[in-house]
Structures are given as structure tokens and as C-alpha cells.
């Protein structure tokens, strides 16, 4: 499938919006709101916040749609999580977290700005080009009502675009023949993925799982003895991203090149502001 957009325009725009969406998962406001619901485990809070649009599902559905989480970890939390709070209660709490988080990171002036309202409408227009088939996380979120406030509309739209791309990315990983841990190890090796410490603490894998996956990648000639991607490994990771770009092009094609450029500009500006306000842990990304 071809595209009329400039090279990597889809990836650049999606990257900024995905990172803005992800501020939810590192927010102290999430811990406060979800503790009030009765949750005590931080991993459970973050999992519930993302799973809730799918309904009161069990660990198998979550493992399938999240791809790189250990089923054993998920089975510790699902379906038991829904006895603490229903999906509807979690979704209400999630929106309160987003409201508090964006107010804290971006400030009231930005939230009331024409730029944020414009970004919300551009992102929602792009989301009109998304499709539900073979995209369960996108489809679950697409069934939710669009909030009224511009900053919540914007976050809702970033969620739709993030999950639409994420669902496509799983198809690209499958096509590349990477299992869940191999996908994590190879992504971290690019220097752009989460550090091993964050992966192991949040995805439920052990260090032995990580090392075994690294060995399998070395056997395929994708990773060298020092844990760096080989030329073939770099090429495979780029192929995965290009495959994802192709599968994710429709919403950005729908928005058009000028709209994508403007949304990317606005999104990057908001992201820089959020990151400067401490939206992300300092050690989140890297190979260490």
C-alpha cells in the first residue's frame, strides 16, 4: 500500500501522540485515583486502565492483545481485578487521571489554548480513518464516548490513534517472527525501547527469560555477543516499523499531509512541555 505522505510522516506524528497518551501510565494521579478504588498493586492499576475498554476480560484476552506481557503475571490480576472495580468504574477513574495529569503537566493556559483545541479536532479527524477489523484495543476504545473538554478530547483521540497503530504493530511483530520477549529485547537494543529494568518489572518476565530471548536472537544473527543489534537486526527492526507505518497509514492519509504536519508540530510541542514537567522517569528508555 502506497502513501502520499512524506517519508516517516506517519511515524513522527504517531510517536508524539503515543508519548502524550503514555503520560497516564507514569502519573502519580493514577496511583491516587486507583488506590481510592481499592487497588494496591501498581502493575494492576496500569493494566486495568488500559484493559477496561475491552470489558471484564480474563488473562487470555489481555495476553493476546498486549502481546509482550507474561500470561502468568496477567493471570495474577485477571479476572480478579474486576471484583475490585468494574470496567466502567475504571474508565471513569481513568478520565479523572487524564484530566489531573494534563492540567499538571501542560498547565491551565495550554489547556484553554486554541492550539490544544485545534490538536484535538485534528486528531479526531485522523481517527475517522481508523478501522476496527483485527484491531481489538482500538475497537474497544472507539466504542467509548468522546469527552467534551478539549484536553480530554485530545487524549481520547491520541488513545484511538495509539491503539490503532499498536494493534497493527502486533501483526508486524508476528510477521517478523519475534515472540513477546524477543520483541522486547530487540526493541530495547535499538536504544529507543524501555530499559530492561522497566520491562522486567512491568511485563512479568524474569532475567532468565530475557537472556534466553537474547540468545535466540543471536542464533538468528540479529544480536551480537555484546547485546547490540547486528546489521541484520537493525534492518529487521526498521522493516517492522515500515510494516507498521503501512498498516497505520489510513488515519493520516485521511487527515492529509498538511494536517499531519500541523498535528505533529502541536503534538511535539505538548510533549516537550510534558516531558519538561517530569512526565516520564529519567531511566525509562535505554539499554541499561
Describe the structure.
- With 288 residues, this protein is mainly α.
- The protein has one domain (9-276).
- 69% of the residues lie in helices and 0% in strands.
- The chain has 17 helices and no strands.
Question: Gist?
Answer:
This protein is mainly alpha-helical. It has helices at residues 9-22, 28-37, 42-51, 59-66, 71-77, 81-84, 87-106, 108-111, 114-127, 136-142, 150-176, 180-189, 196-203, 207-219, 231-247, 249-255, 257-276. The longest helix has 27 residues, at 150-176.
* Average residue-wise pLDDT: 96
Radius of gyration: 19 Å
Distance between the termini: 37 Å
The helix/strand series, from N terminus to C terminus, equals: HHHHHHHHHHHHHHHHH
Tell me what portion of residues adopts beta-strand conformation: under 5%
Estimate nothing, just give the exact number of structural domains. Answer: 1
Topology record:
Blueprint: H1 9-22, H2 28-37, H3 42-51, H4 59-66, H5 71-77, H6 81-84, H7 87-106, H8 108-111, H9 114-127, H10 136-142, H11 150-176, H12 180-189, H13 196-203, H14 207-219, H15 231-247, H16 249-255, H17 257-276
Question: Could you list some keywords that capture this structure?
Answer:
288 residues, mainly alpha, globular
Amino acid at each position: 500500500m502506497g502513501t502520499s505522505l512524506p517519508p516517516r510522516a506517519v511515524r513522527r506524528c504517531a510517536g508524539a501522540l503515543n508519548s502524550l497518551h503514555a503520560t497516564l501510565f507514569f502519573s502519580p494521579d493514577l496511583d491516587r485515583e486507583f488506590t481510592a478504588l481499592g487497588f494496591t498493586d501498581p502493575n494492576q492499576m496500569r493494566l486495568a486502565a488500559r484493559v477496561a475498554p475491552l470489558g471484564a476480560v480474563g488473562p487470555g484476552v489481555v495476553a493476546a492483545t498486549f502481546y509482550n506481557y507474561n500470561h502468568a503475571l496477567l493471570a495474577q490480576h485477571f479476572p480478579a481485578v474486576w471484583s475490585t472495580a468494574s470496567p466502567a468504574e475504571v474508565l471513569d477513574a481513568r478520565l479523572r487521571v487524564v484530566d489531573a495529569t494534563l492540567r499538571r503537566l501542560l498547565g491551565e493556559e495550554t489547556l484553554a489554548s486554541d492550539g490544544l483545541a485545534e490538536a484535538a479536532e485534528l486528531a479526531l479527524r485522523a481517527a475517522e480513518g481508523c478501522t476496527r477489523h483485527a484491531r481489538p484495543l482500538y475497537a474497544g476504545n472507539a466504542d467509548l464516548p468522546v469527552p467534551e473538554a478539549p484536553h480530554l478530547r485530545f487524549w481520547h483521540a491520541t488513545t484511538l490513534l495509539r491503539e490503532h497503530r499498536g494493534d497493527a504493530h502486533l501483526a508486524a511483530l508476528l510477521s517478523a517472527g519475534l515472540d513477546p520477549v524477543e520483541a522486547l529485547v530487540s526493541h530495547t537494543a535499538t536504544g529507543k525501547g524501555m530499559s530492561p529494568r522497566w520491562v522486567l518489572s512491568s511485563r512479568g518476565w524474569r532475567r532468565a527469560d530475557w537472556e534466553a530471548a537474547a540468545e535466540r536472537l543471536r542464533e538468528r544473527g540479529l544480536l551480537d555477543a555484546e547485546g547490540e543489534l547486528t546489521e541484520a537486526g537493525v534492518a529487521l527492526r526498521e522493516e517492522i516499523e515500515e510494516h507498521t507505518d503501512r498498516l497505520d497509514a489510513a488515519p493520516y492519509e485521511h487527515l492529509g499531509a498538511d494536517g499531519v504536519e500541523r498535528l505533529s508540530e502541536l503534538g511535539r510541542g505538548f510533549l516537550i512541555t510534558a516531558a519538561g514537567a517530569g512526565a516520564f522517569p529519567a531511566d525509562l528508555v535505554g539499554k541499561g
